[in-house]
Design goal:
- By secondary structure, the protein is mostly helical.
- The protein is built from 22 helices and 4 strands.
- Strands 1-2-4-3 form a 4-stranded mixed β-sheet.
- The termini are far apart.
Length: 401
């Protein structure tokens, strides 16, 4: 259409578009112009308000206006405008979907609206609005009503993954777990980032003692909520994959911002069930340790240093501590990478070369030691122990000033 073409080119006057819409009785071209011309919703609002009486002529235009008011002036202003035009648009599903966004108490109207839908008295501009109406019914636990919309869509051959997702949710609430799980598995590829689909697929599979496909587990780990990570940790624990289970359970714990007691309990149970008596001697600041620093003012800072990629963000503040990786610990001076790297390089080369080179590398280690002394470490560092061990091994004298 020529008008739309001119709108796309940006070479048509707004008044000309409005005049054309008034002659034809449809305003979708004006809506397209507003979306293209206006940089923000406040401009949309002002442009529509400049045309008296236009809001009662087209529901698309009215909904665009209400949405702009909701963003620019707040929910109360949007409610006032919706109520003002209720007699005009009360038979449209889209009108009620918009009012439910800003006025949840109006959901008490759902039984009456469903009966109007059932009797064919409700209209919609977009078939997806009917699906959205079913979603609202489900959210308010009107499952028997919602399933009738789903079954109508199926009867008309209008089945989509979104419709099947709704059906699975209703069947799950109706204790038809087997059928619900089969549907979820069939549509899973369309909803790998959907929290509800991934969560329910795992829970139903566990309850029905079904094998859980790896793609479902991978999706849960990718979404990475505390609950999903806890579920996958439980799966790995059953499969005797203790290391993976403990890693995921620690991830879940770090993401437990709501302090859910169940996640703490699962973490402790996993640690207890896989406990060993091995003692780890910590000689300094290293991976998987916590560091407590206290300033002259008495204020304490706690840093937890991790080796593996388990944090949701870096740095990550949780439970009063700052959680970081080795690289960040080096950056802020908790670890000294240069000394450790020098020692590792020297030791590796000494072990791989002949005896005639070992004294040379031991002397290199003396220079490393001097570097360490110049830094005036207050805590015995593993580098010291390794340095002296090397000197003893190769019977090399140690002279420092």
């Amino acid at each position: 259409m020529m008008i739309q073409y001119k709108i796309d080119l940006g070479c048509i006057d707004e008044e000309a578009v409005v005049e054309f819409c008034e002659r034809t009785g449809t305003y979708w071209l004006y809506c397209n112009l507003l979306r293209k011309k206006c940089n923000n919703l406040n401009q949309v609002k002002q442009s529509i308000e400049s045309h008296n009486g236009i809001l009662e002529k087209d529901i698309y235009l009215f909904l665009l206006y209400v949405q702009s008011i909701r963003v620019c002036d707040g929910k109360e202003a949007a409610i006032t405008e919706l109520k003002k035009y209720q007699s005009v648009y009360k038979d449209y599903v889209e009108y009620w979907l918009e009012i439910f966004k800003v006025h949840e108490t109006e959901r008490k109207m759902l039984p009456e609206l469903f009966e109007k839908w059932k009797d064919g008295q409700l209209k919609w501009l977009d078939p997806e609005a009917e699906v959205d109406f079913a979603k609202v019914l489900i959210d308010c636990q009107y499952y028997k009503e919602a399933i009738q919309i789903v079954e109508k869509k199926e009867a008309l051959g209008q089945v989509s993954p979104d419709i099947l997702r709704l059906k699975a949710r209703i069947l799950m609430e109706d204790n038809q777990a087997v059928t619900a799980l089969d549907i979820l598995l069939n549509i899973f590829d369309n909803f790998q980032n959907d929290l509800f689909v991934v969560d329910v697929t795992i829970v139903l599979s566990l309850n029905l003692q079904r094998n859980i496909p790896q793609k479902v587990i991978d999706a849960a780990i990718k979404i990475g909520t505390a609950r999903l990570l806890t579920l996958v940790a439980g799966i790995y624990s059953r499969e005797n994959k203790k290391a993976e289970a403990k890693k995921l359970m620690l991830k879940a714990l770090l993401r437990n911002k709501d302090n859910e007691i169940g996640i703490f309990g699962n973490y402790l149970m996993l640690q207890i069930s896989d406990s060993d008596s091995t003692e780890r001697k910590i000689d300094g600041i290293e991976n998987d340790t916590a560091v407590v620093l206290q300033g002259v003012d008495g204020k304490k800072l706690i840093y937890c240093i991790y080796e593996e990629n388990i944090l949701p963000d870096v740095p990550y503040i949780w439970q009063g501590a700052t959680h970081i990786y080795r690289d960040q610990a080096i950056t802020i001076g908790l670890l000294k990478e240069d000394f450790m790297c020098k020692w590792i390089d020297c030791l590796t080369l000494a072990e791989s070369m002949g005896d005639e080179y070992k004294e040379v590398y031991a002397q290199n280690m003396m220079r490393v030691c001097q570097d360490i002394i110049s830094e005036e470490y207050d805590v015995v560092n593993p580098v010291w122990r390794n340095y002296f061990s090397l000197c003893v091994k190769y019977k090399c004298g140690l002279e420092t000033k």
